[in-house]
Amino acid sequence: MDKTALIVGASGIMGSNLARELLAQGWTTYGLARRPKSDIAGLHPVAADLLAPSSLTTALAEIAPTHVFLTSWLRHDTEAENIRVNGAMVRNLLAALAPKHSVQHVALVTGLKHYLGPFESYARAGALPPTPLREEMPRLPVDNFYYAQEDEVYAAAARDGFTWSIHRPHTVIGLAVGNLMNLGTTLAVYASICKETGRPFQWPGSGAQWNGLSDVTDARVIAKQLVWAATTEAARNEAFNIVNGDYFRWSWLWPRLAAWFGVEAVGFDGTMHPLEAEMANDAPIWQEIATRHHLAEPDLRQLASAWHTDLDLGRPIEVMTDMSKSRQAGFHVYQRTEDSFFDLFAQLRAERLIP
Predict the structure, then answer these.
(1) Mean pLDDT, range 298-323, rounded to an integer
(2) Which of 19, 152, 205, 266 could pair with 200 as two cysteines, CB 3.0-4.6 Å apart?
């Protein structure tokens, strides 16, 4: 049977890589957004507002997806608003698709904040889970929009009879412009500014992150897991962690990232140096760099998400993610993390996004 995918967030880090993976495997693939991009060959853009049911009904009138991939969310100032808005987005989309009776599987991407807590109470001391993080760990006793999104998927699955999968990546490394959570590109831009200005490439985060074990998720790896789970019986109605499969220490990786850019690496010196402060006055500098090197994006805000990078690198604990569950179910994709960063840096340079 022909497979038709609908990706929510097809222009983001995860969605764009997923679109390319699906198209390479011969899927008919639609990308839904309020202002969809059409820069991926073969991807059919769908313009709709997930918070406007009538908009969805109109936009999806002639589309009957067999598989739905939810890779996008909207950030608001409070977790209560995050829950209200992001829950409604999932609910509205699945309700609009329900009369078609075409959906066989829905995949939802959330993340490790499932275990570590939402932005308002993220990784607070005294409520930190043991690592490695495992899928069977119970929900935290706090409001979390990830839980609200999951519950909307569960309710729609019970109503409409489709299967589901939940995917929990760590920090996602991949190319996307204008993304709110983009550690890899943020570090590339920061290193480029350090190179151009002669500043040291200063570790911004905590001692626990500098010295502890960590992992990340290559966007290409989560794309493969999403397709695997959508087409594998053993993966139905399950939640899966998804990371590259290796562990590293930032104290090991940081000098290697610096060497790629030819800048001086400075490690943890007993004090945190958040990138929000370090890069607070760098927008004019980046514009000058972009002009001098004929870069494609002169707006620093479209490339760097210092706030989220600080959130990741400033945690008071090491963070490791267990991958046993999906390995046992048959997913064996592995990616070396050092290469994830270097591949991204080379792609950013090829796309004229960094000098």
Answers:
(1) 93
(2) 266
